[in-house]
């Protein structure tokens, strides 16, 4: 159970998040929507520890993790698929996946087959350098790499960006599957509203560093949401 | 005048045939000469004593060579035993209280005479190795006076190898003998030619006053040997290149990690090497103080891990206190590590003083062996092996261990690596520590061939950077190949262009090479590399 | 887009300070108020300031970390040194009217061809700029054309200066080997040791540095400068916009080399000797250090850095001869850790913070109300 | 693999861009497999295809970033682009937006656009260049188009992902190229923005030719232009969006069921 | 020109030796020995009833810094004399400063000659006080016929080798029996050069190496000699810049018998030397500390200066310079060193063989003292020059052929 409570985040003097609160529970997908530059990525960075927050708290399993370094958070089961993929360019695809082993006990260090089933292209490219992959392939690798860590909170920043339609569908199925398994909380940033609506239990819409709307997809007024997403 | 008389007396001795001139009066002038203060006299005395056949000759000459021969004002000679007691040199009788004595000193001329003289005497030693060395010494210092002794030795020599060497020594001496027959001389030339090598060439080339046929044969032999030598020369240059390459490699591997893998422009790298060399020095000092002398040979193997740990710990400290604040600002690491290198240099100067420290080479590492015309010095051989070992160990760590994977991941994208759960501070510190530790190990090797002084590191830093860049940053193989290639080019150029010009040419070649391959010999290819 | 008065004030501040202090020091020394020796000392600092400015142009703005810039400085210095040598005329120890002393005692019989012409000041002046400029042109053309960049470039610049070091060490090169060129008598007919000549040289250095600063500022503020910064941070991207990074780099590189050469030319008469030691890689590294201390990518910073670091060196080598390396080393470490943007960073940071910070605050306020 | 002269010239005559049997391989992997493609002047073309089909590589080849192993890329009937380097190609009038947005991070949004503005690119010019009123007006109008007017003074590096995308589109506009290569312009944009982008591209297409790569089928549909489907480095299918989206092979490898 | 400190204050003495950088290795000791000498002199009551005060600066092996520091010593600290420099280039760098500000430099290291300046006193050896006797020794005692002149590529080795080459040829040595080899500073890989030497020495004639290899490069050179098994009995090496201090950093066992030529060895068996070493060790609190030739040079130079100051009754450099000539003080090898009109001193030449304890076994000593030939008769350019700083000549480079003081010498001499 993740709960973000009144978080502020600054880039230098510029503020990107103001008092944002949001939560995510196991077995559910929380989807974050918003126009460009409203602070979605910033919120995810705050959660995974990639950028320090200036106010508020981030609780995971009841403990405040907002002062923990990112690797400690990862060790508590938080995995991140960043926007822009952040593949290790000079590591091979296999090695990129193996970086996920750091949080696993020695016995559990293997790449589950279902990952290759989901992203068959990776299996054929295990020895290629991550940086050489095409954009969409890198995106797939980034998701796969996050899954290797067997996370309990999966934080996805626009995971469908640059991915071909058939695989987007697959990813949707996987997210649904993971959700159904019930042991993983999923926080998803998405621009692709239809995709979000299908998957999410909760939808939160951000604007100018704050959450301005949230609720179950059924409860929200679609027109209102769409308006908030346009200029 | 006195010297002249002495010489006359000695000449008398020399012309006296090889039969044992055991009469006491016979060796007296020789012994008197040994007690002279003039090195010429001593040398003559040594020569005379050596051929005198006197049973005490070997003991006296041995004592002289070992610095244990003493003279009294009245020209009486005494040998000091290992226990500090003296015996009369001429008689071997113990001398309870010899009075004020003065050590009989030797210079190069005397040393040569001793070598020759003792050589002849030791031809009959019970130990085959001693006999072989004796034959070699006689070969190097050919002396017709030794021919009879050689003849006798050859006749009684059981060991075939030693026998050949004695025959070679005899051949060398024959060529110096004024009244040798032409046939003997020709045979001698053939023997020398068959032996080959620089020394034989030297002997043949230096002949004078030979009958025409012999001179002709000698000249032919010299040119034949020259041909061989030239071929061997190439091999030798390649070997030198390899060994220079291994030194460069050792110096550069640490940098290949701190700079190549981590991207820190580590100006203090040289100082890590220096720390390793000083660690070796300290280990040797401690060995001398606390470890039985018999184990001294272990000082270097012990120094290797010590240097690794010392430099590694210093490296970790540097990373924690300094470098870690500078990730993402690679160029500023240059400034900070430059400051650090000043501090470390001065610290070593304060602690150990500005002058060189004496790190010596244990017996098992010194000397050389000959493979055909190729001379291989042991310390270089070990350094090559060591460099290869370090290289492979490091590759294994980087390629095969989880730590290696994490190191590479962290240096490629620190933020993402942390998000993957990798303890980046820990990995950073270990990586820098590893690079520094490896540099420290290089210091152990360098202490064997270079100064151990506060400036040691400075001499290698430029070369190290060049090697890393030449090979291609981030590629350990590249570093290895780069080091060897630079070494070999350097060593082939050096004899042709001279050391200075050779070095300049290497630098210019490097500059031109980088124009052809802007990312080194083994560049990282593909999209990943083009940032 | 800063307001006009400030834009005017800033470019004048540095030239005024530099020239002003130079004139002041010269006047004080001539008037006997200050010790004469600070004249050439300050002159030396300012020459280093020129070198630092040159390094900053290529490093701070072009992203080319040159670890061999002292080579251009030294070449300019040698060109000037050759002029000064020729001015000695028959006053050398051997009284040879043509050959410098070191040639006489190494048995040279004729002046090597490359020494001709240096007896004329204008020729020497041209060479001061031409030699470093040409070398930079050839080297830069080759390197930038084949897209050598980053550390590869840094290391080959180092190789370049190292090769020159070795070459100039060689007595056979005809530049006096390790001892270099020294024992100068006069420059343009003025006794090089007289206080007035010294003062004039100092003022000249101040003026040249000021001019170079103004030039550098104009260049970096121009659209050229913006392209250059773009090249520094995203070279390949500029190509897709149709820019040729190599020509931009080449222009700034050659300009910087010429500037450094002029610095070297001013340095030699004030120091009294030029020798291959000036090519030593550490000299180039030190120049980079001055830039870093002062603040890379600012123009005043490097000058400040060069003066201050060298002042510290003068001070410490005199007062703490046994421990000054600790002091200097700690200074460098301290500056990097505490002042990430160098000395100028302190000034800049405050300015930068209030500008975008204020803007952000304003927009935040607008958003809150809107 | 030389093209048949006659056919080639025929194809070349009324085309703006002609890719002729282009192959590229990396360490033995064929990213483009004798790909041929013809673009008429004033045409807009959508290129779709699975991840790794070679779309970006194709753009790399056109813009000179990657040299093909075989084949030609003919621009305006007479210029073989494979003989030219990136700046030369850019100066010919081929502009590009990258898949991963790349802007000049230390420069302000304004300066990013200024540097992209069409004009002389030589140092001799830029050393003397002053910002003209005309240029300022142009930048203002682009800023409005990409809705970054409020962000003009911010550093490019401080923008969010989507803002960078927009800035890059703006830079492309500023360049005023004859041919625009746009790699995934709407990735990370909201649906509304996607529509606007489609509108913008159609607008541009009135005067210029465009090649656009995108995975967003709604967007592609909105463009309403001929679609080329790449697969494993060569053309799998070509035609209207309806035509290709019914092609079973396209469904199989790309759209999915 | 500069104002002098008040007459009753301490007399300041400048010490200008590198304490950091590449030369620190050699020069630091000289700073120490100067401090000791000054300290001892103060215990004896100083000079002219005034205490001496050392002023130490660090020119950091950086030649321009040498000039700067010299200027600082003279015009800020107002020193009365400076003891310093090691390399020729550092001397050349400070020379204009000493001339301009009219002060005194004592230069303690053997050098290439070809210089005689009014403001400098050269207490190290000129080539004829070291190199030529060394070659003589090898010719007569080791019967050397073939010569390798190996040096670092800079002015001192170049000049010395020029002189030696001319000298050897004048003794009938043929061109093909001379091999000249130069290496860069800090050369550390000697493998091929040593093997080249070995090959050169295998021509059947007795071969020797005359080494002007500088500083740090010696250690790897000797290590390589040892490794390749070149023994002194085969190819002896005679060096001009390897002294006790350098040997302290090498394992000397493989080097026994190789030679060095100096004007002083620590092993010189005289009471003065014994006393000096004892004081030195006590002062440095290091019972193993060695002494060497440049130290002796400073010892002589300092004592000469003290004597000259006392003779002149003032520390005024002009007067002291005038008083220096003819001053004679005991050296450490049992004789006297006298300051000659050419500002060089008389010296004995000693040849020593390296012993396994890092000391030298003195195998030859010139019977008398040798006067320096600052202008070598073996170089065509300087053949006709002499130096005599006594009035009326007062010239460092007087051409006896044309009877004129050359160049600037005549200009500055009057000052
Ligand atoms: N590294 C940074 N430095 C300064 N400002 C930044 C930085 N990253 C983002 N910002 C600013 O913070 C605000 C929020 O950015 P963020 O990346 O969180 O937006 P986003 O909602 O993820 O947008 P997008 O949909 O475009 O990815 C934006 O105004 C952006 O310009
Ligand atoms: N330098 C390289 N080395 C190895 N393989 C490469 C390299 N560059 C591209 N590839 C491979 O070439 C193929 C084509 O890549 P490209 O980027 O053109 O695909 P794309 O069609 O743009 O895909 P996406 O839709 O995912 O962006 C991919 O499989 C990629 O892995
Ligand atoms: Mg985002
Ligand atoms: Mg792509």
TrEMBL record, chain A:
| Assigned keywords, A-Z | Amino-acid transport, ATP-binding, Nucleotide-binding, Transport
Family recorded in the similarity comment = Belongs to the ABC transporter superfamily.
Q: Which SUPFAM superfamilies match?
A: P-loop containing nucleoside triphosphate hydrolases
Q: Which Pfam families match?
A: ABC_tran
In what residue span(s) does the ABC transporter domain sit?
A: 2-231
Which species is the source of this protein? Answer: Acidisphaera rubrifaciens HS-AP3
Please name the InterPro entries in this protein's record. AAA+_ATPase, ABC_transporter-like_ATP-bd, ABC_transptr_urea_ATP-bd_UrtE, BCAA_Transport_ATP-bd_LivF, P-loop_NTPase
Q: Name one GO biological process term.
A: L-amino acid transport
NCBIfam families according to UniProt? urea_trans_UrtE
The answer to keyword Mitochondrion applying to this record is no
Gene3D superfamilies tied to this protein: P-loop containing nucleotide triphosphate hydrolases (3.40.50.300)
Q: What is this protein called?
A: ABC transporter urea/short-chain amide/branched-chain amino acid transport
Q: Name one GO molecular function term.
A: ATP binding
UniProtKB/TrEMBL annotation, chain B:
A single Gene Ontology CC annotation of this entry is:
plasma membrane
Q: Which Pfam families match?
A: BPD_transp_2
Name any one GO molecular function.
transmembrane transporter activity
Stretches that traverse the bilayer: 239-265, 272-290, 296-318, 330-348, 381-398, 465-489, 495-514
Q: What is this protein called?
A: Urea short-chain amide or branched-chain amino acid transporter permease
Q: How does it sit in the membrane?
A: Multi-pass membrane protein
Where does it localize? Answer: Cell membrane
- Could you mention a single GO BP entry for this protein? amino acid transport
Which InterPro entries does the entry link to? ABC_transp_permease (IPR001851), ABC_UrtB_bac (IPR017779), BCAA_transport_permease (IPR052157)
Q: Which family does it belong to?
A: Belongs to the binding-protein-dependent transport system permease family. LivHM subfamily.
Question: Which top-rank group of organisms is this from?
Answer: Bacteria
Which regions form coiled coils?
none
Annotated CDD domains: TM_PBP1_LivH_like (cd06582)
Q: What is the lineage of its organism?
A: Bacteria, Pseudomonadati, Pseudomonadota, Alphaproteobacteria, Acetobacterales
Query: Has the keyword Nucleus been applied to this entry?
Result: no
Transmembrane helix as UniProt keyword: yes
Q: Which UniProt keywords apply?
A: Amino-acid transport, Cell membrane, Membrane, Signal, Transmembrane, Transmembrane helix, Transport
Task: Extract the signal peptide range.
Answer: 1-23
UniProtKB/TrEMBL annotation, chain C:
Its keywords, alphabetically, are:
Cell membrane, Membrane, Transmembrane, Transmembrane helix
Membrane-related topology note: Multi-pass membrane protein
Among the GO molecular function terms of this UniProt record, one is:
branched-chain amino acid transmembrane transporter activity
Q: Name one Pfam family in it.
A: BPD_transp_2
Q: Where are the transmembrane segments?
A: 12-38, 67-85, 121-144, 151-169, 199-216, 250-268, 323-343
Q: Which GO terms describe its cellular component?
A: plasma membrane
The cross-references to InterPro entries, in alphabetical order and at most eight, read: ABC_transp_permease (IPR001851), ABC_transptr_urea_perm_UrtC (IPR017778), LivM-like (IPR043428)
Q: Where in the cell is it found?
A: Cell membrane
This chain belongs to the protein called ABC transporter urea/amino acid/sugar permease
From TrEMBL, chain D:
Q: The organism sits in which domain of life?
A: Bacteria
Checking SUPFAM superfamilies in the record gives: P-loop containing nucleoside triphosphate hydrolases (SSF52540)
Stored Pfam families: ABC_tran, BCA_ABC_TP_C
Q: Which GO terms describe its cellular component?
A: plasma membrane
GO: which molecular function terms? ATP binding; ATP hydrolysis activity
Q: Which SMART domains match?
A: AAA
Q: Which residues form the ABC transporter domain?
A: 17-257
* Keywords, alphabetical: ATP-binding, Nucleotide-binding, Transport
Xref: InterPro entries = AAA+_ATPase, ABC_AA/LPS_Transport, ABC_transporter-like_ATP-bd, ABC_transptr_urea_ATP-bd_UrtD, BCA_ABC_TP_C, P-loop_NTPase
Keyword ATP-binding attributed:
yes
UniProt xrefs under NCBIfam families: urea_trans_UrtD (TIGR03411)
Please state what the protein is called. ABC transporter short-chain amide/branched-chain amino acid permease
Species annotation: Acidisphaera rubrifaciens HS-AP3
- Lineage, uppermost ranks: Bacteria, Pseudomonadati, Pseudomonadota, Alphaproteobacteria, Acetobacterales
């Amino acid at each position: 159970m993740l709960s973000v409570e009144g978080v502020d985040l600054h880039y230098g003097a510029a503020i990107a998040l103001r008092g944002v609160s949001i939560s995510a529970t196991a077995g559910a997908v929380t989807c974050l929507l918003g126009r460009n530059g409203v602070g979605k990525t910033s919120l995810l960075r705050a959660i995974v520890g990639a950028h320090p927050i200036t106010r508020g708290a981030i609780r995971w399993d009841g403990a405040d993790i907002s002062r923990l370094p990112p690797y400690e958070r990862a060790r508590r089961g938080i995995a991140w698929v960043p926007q822009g993929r952040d593949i290790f360019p000079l590591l091979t695809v296999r090695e990129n996946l193996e970086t996920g082993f750091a949080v696993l006990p020695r016995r559990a260090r293997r790449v589950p087959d279902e990952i290759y089933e989901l992203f068959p292209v990776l299996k054929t490219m295990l020895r290629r350098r991550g940086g050489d992959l095409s954009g969409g392939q890198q995106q797939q690798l980034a998701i796969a790499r996050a899954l290797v860590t067997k996370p309990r909170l999966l934080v996805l920043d626009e995971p469908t960006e640059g991915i071909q339609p058939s695989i987007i569908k697959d990813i949707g199925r996987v997210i649904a599957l993971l959700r159904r398994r019930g042991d993983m909380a999923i926080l998803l940033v998405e621009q692709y509203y239809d995709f979000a609506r299908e998957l999410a239990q909760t939808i939160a819409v951000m604007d100018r560093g704050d959450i301005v709307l949230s609720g179950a997809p059924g409860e929200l007024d679609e027109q209102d949401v769409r308006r908030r997403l346009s200029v | 005048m006195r010297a002249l008389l002495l010489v006359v007396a000695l000449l008398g001795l020399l012309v006296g045939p090889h039969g044992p001139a055991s009469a006491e009066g016979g060796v007296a002038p020789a012994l008197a000469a040994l007690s002279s203060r003039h090195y010429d006299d001593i040398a003559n005395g040594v020569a005379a004593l050596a051929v005198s056949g006197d049973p005490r000759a070997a003991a006296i000459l041995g004592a002289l060579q070992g610095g244990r021969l003493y003279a009294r004002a009245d020209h009486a000679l005494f040998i000091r035993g290992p226990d500090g007691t003296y015996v009369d040199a001429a008689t071997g009788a113990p001398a309870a209280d010899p009075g004020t004595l003065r050590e009989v000193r030797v210079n190069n001329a005397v040393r040569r005479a001793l070598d020759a003289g003792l050589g002849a005497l030791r031809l009959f030693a019970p130990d085959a190795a001693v006999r072989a060395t004796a034959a070699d010494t006689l070969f190097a210092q050919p002396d017709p006076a030794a021919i009879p002794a050689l003849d006798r030795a050859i006749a009684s020599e059981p060991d075939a190898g030693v026998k050949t060497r004695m025959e070679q020594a005899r051949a060398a001496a024959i060529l110096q003998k004024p009244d040798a027959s032409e046939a003997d001389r020709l045979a001698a030339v053939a023997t020398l030619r068959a032996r080959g090598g620089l020394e034989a060439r030297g002997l043949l080339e230096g002949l004078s006053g030979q009958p025409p046929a012999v001179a002709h044969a000698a000249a032919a032999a010299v040119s034949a040997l020259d041909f061989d030598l030239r071929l061997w020369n190439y091999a030798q240059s390649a070997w030198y290149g390899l060994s220079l390459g291994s030194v460069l490699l050792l110096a550069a591997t640490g940098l290949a990690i701190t700079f190549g893998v981590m991207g820190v422009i580590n100006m203090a790298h040289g100082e890590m090497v220096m720390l390793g060399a000083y660690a070796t020095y300290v280990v040797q000092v401690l060995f001398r103080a606390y470890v039985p002398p018999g184990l001294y040979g272990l000082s270097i193997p012990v120094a290797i891990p010590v240097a690794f740990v010392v430099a590694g710990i210093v490296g970790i400290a540097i990373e924690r206190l300094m470098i870690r604040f500078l990730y993402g600002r690679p160029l500023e690491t240059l400034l900070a590590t430059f400051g650090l290198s000043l501090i470390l240099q001065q610290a070593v100067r304060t602690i150990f003083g500005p002058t060189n420290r004496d790190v010596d080479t244990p017996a098992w590492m010194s000397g050389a062996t000959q493979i055909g015309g190729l001379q291989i010095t042991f310390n270089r051989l070990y350094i090559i092996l060591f460099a290869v070992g370090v290289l492979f160990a490091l590759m294994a760590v980087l390629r095969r261990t989880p730590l290696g994977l994490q190191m590479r991941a962290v240096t490629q994208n620190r933020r993402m690596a942390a998000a993957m759960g990798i303890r980046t501070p820990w990995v950073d510190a270990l990586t820098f520590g590893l690079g520094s530790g490896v540099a420290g190990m290089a210091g152990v090797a360098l202490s064997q061939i270079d100064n151990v002084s506060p400036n040691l590191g400075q001499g290698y830093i430029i070369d190290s950077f060049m090697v890393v860049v030449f090979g291609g940053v981030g590629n350990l193989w590249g570093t290895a190949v780069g080091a060897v290639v630079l070494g070999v080019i350097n060593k082939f150029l050096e004899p042709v262009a001279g050391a200075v010009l050779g070095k300049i040419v290497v630098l210019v070649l490097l500059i031109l090479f980088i124009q052809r391959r802007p990312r080194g010999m083994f560049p990282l290819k593909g999209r990943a590399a083009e940032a | 887009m800063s307001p006009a008065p400030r834009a005017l004030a800033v470019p004048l501040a540095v030239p005024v300070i530099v020239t002003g202090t130079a004139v002041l020091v010269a006047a004080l020394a001539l008037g006997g108020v200050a010790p004469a020796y600070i004249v050439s000392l300050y002159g030396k600092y300012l020459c280093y300031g020129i070198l630092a400015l040159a390094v900053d142009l290529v490093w701070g703005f072009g992203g080319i970390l040159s670890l061999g810039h002292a080579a251009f400085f030294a070449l300019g210095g040698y060109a000037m040194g050759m002029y000064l040598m020729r001015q000695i005329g028959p006053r050398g120890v051997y009284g040879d009217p043509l050959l410098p002393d070191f040639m006489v005692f190494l048995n040279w019989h004729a002046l090597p061809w490359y020494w001709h012409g240096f007896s004329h000041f204008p020729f020497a002046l041209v060479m001061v700029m031409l030699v470093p400029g040409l070398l930079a042109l050839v080297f830069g053309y080759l390197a930038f054309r084949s897209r050598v960049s980053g550390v590869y470039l840094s290391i080959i610049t180092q190789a370049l200066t190292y090769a020159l070091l070795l070459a100039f060490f060689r007595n056979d090169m005809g530049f006096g080997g390790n001892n270099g060129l020294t024992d100068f008598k006069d420059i343009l007919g003025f006794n090089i040791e007289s206080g007035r000549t010294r003062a004039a040289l100092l003022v000249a250095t101040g003026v040249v540095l000021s001019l170079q600063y103004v030039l550098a500022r104009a260049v970096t503020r121009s659209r050229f400068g913006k392209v250059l910064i773009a090249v520094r941070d995203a070279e390949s991207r500029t190509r897709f916009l149709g820019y040729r990074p190599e020509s931009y780099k080449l222009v700034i590189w050659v300009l910087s080399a010429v500037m450094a050469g002029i610095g070297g030319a001013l340095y030699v008469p004030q120091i009294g000797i030029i020798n291959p030691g000036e090519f030593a890689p550490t000299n180039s590294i030190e120049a980079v250090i001055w830039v870093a201390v002062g603040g890379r990518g600012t123009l005043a910073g490097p000058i400040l850095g060069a003066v201050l670091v060298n002042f510290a060196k003068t001070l410490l080598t005199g007062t703490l001869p046994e421990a000054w390396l600790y002091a200097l080393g700690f200074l460098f470490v301290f500056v990097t850790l505490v002042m990430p943007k160098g000395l100028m960073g302190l000034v800049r940071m405050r300015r930068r913070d209030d500008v975008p910070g204020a803007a952000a605050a304003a927009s935040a306020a607008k958003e809150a109300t809107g | 693999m030389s093209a048949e002269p006659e056919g080639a010239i025929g194809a070349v005559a009324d085309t703006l861009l002609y890719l002729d049997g282009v192959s590229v391989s990396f360490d033995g992997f064929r990213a483009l497999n004798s790909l041929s493609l013809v673009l008429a002047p004033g045409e807009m073309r959508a290129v779709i295809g699975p991840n790794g089909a070679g779309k970006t590589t194709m753009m790399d080849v056109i813009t000179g970033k990657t040299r093909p192993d075989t084949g030609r890329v003919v621009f305006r009937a007479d210029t073989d682009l494979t003989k030219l380097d990136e700046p030369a190609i850019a100066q010919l009038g081929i502009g590009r937006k990258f898949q991963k947005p790349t802007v000049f991070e230390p420069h302000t949004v304004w300066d990013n656009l200024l540097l992209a503005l069409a004009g002389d690119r030589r140092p001799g010019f830029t050393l003397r260049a002053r910002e003209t009123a005309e240029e300022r007006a142009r930048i203002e109008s682009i800023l409005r188009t990409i809705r970054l007017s409020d962000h003009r003074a911010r550093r490019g590096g401080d923008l969010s992902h989507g803002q960078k995308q927009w800035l890059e589109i703006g830079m492309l506009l500023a360049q005023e190229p004859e041919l625009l290569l746009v790699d995934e312009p709407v990735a990370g944009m909201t649906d509304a923005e996607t529509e606007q982008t489609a509108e913008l591209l159609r607008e541009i297409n009135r005067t210029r030719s465009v090649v656009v790569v995108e995975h967003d089928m709604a967007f592609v549909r909105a463009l309403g232009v001929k679609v080329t489907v790449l697969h494993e480095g060569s053309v799998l299918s070509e035609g209207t969006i309806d035509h290709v989206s019914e092609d079973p092979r396209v469904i199989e490898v790309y759209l999915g069921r | 020109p500069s104002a002098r400190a008040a007459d009753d204050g301490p007399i300041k003495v400048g010490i200008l030796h590198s304490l950091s950088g590449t030369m620190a290795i050699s020069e630091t000791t000289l700073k120490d020995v100067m401090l000791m000498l000054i300290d001892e002199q103060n215990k004896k009551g100083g000079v002219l009833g005034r205490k001496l005060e050392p002023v130490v600066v660090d020119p950091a092996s950086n030649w321009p810094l040498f000039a700067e520091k010299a200027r600082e010593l003279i015009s800020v600290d107002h020193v009365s004399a400076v003891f310093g420099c090691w390399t020729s280039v550092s001397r050349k760098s400070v020379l204009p400063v000493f001339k301009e500000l009219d002060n005194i430099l004592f230069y303690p290291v053997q050098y290439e000659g070809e210089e005689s300046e009014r403001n400098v006193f050269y207490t190290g050896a000129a080539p004829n006080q070291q190199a030529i006797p060394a070659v003589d020794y090898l010719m007569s005692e080791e019967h050397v016929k073939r010569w390798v002149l190996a040096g670092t590529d800079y002015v001192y080795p170049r000049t010395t080798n020029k002189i030696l080459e001319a000298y050897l040829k004048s003794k009938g040595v043929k061109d093909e029996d001379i091999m000249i080899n130069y290496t860069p500073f800090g050369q550390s890989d000697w493998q091929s050069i040593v093997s080249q030497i070995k090959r050169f020495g295998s021509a059947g004639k007795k071969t020797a190496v005359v080494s002007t290899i500088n500083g740090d490069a010696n250690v790897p050179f000797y290590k390589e000699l040892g490794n390749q098994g070149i023994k002194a009995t085969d190819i002896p090496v005679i060096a001009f810049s390897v002294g006790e201090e350098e040997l302290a950093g090498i394992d000397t066992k493989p080097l026994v018998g190789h030679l060095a030529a100096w004007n002083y060895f620590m092993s010189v068996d005289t009471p003065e030397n014994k006393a000096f070493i004892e004081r030195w060790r006590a002062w440095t609190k290091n019972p193993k500390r060695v002494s060497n030739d440049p130290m002796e040079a400073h010892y002589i130079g300092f004592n000469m200066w003290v004597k000259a100051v006392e003779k002149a009754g003032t520390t005024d450099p002009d007067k002291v310079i005038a008083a220096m000539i003819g001053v004679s003080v005991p050296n450490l090898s049992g004789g006297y060193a006298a300051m000659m009109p050419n500002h060089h001193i008389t010296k004995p030449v000693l040849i020593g063989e390296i012993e396994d304890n890092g000391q030298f076994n003195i195998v030859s000593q010139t019977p008398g003292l040798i006067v320096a030939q600052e202008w070598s008769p073996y170089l065509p350019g300087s053949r006709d020059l002499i130096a005599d700083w006594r009035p009326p000549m007062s010239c460092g480079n007087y051409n006896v052929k044309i009877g004129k003081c050359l160049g600037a010498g005549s200009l500055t001499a009057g000052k």
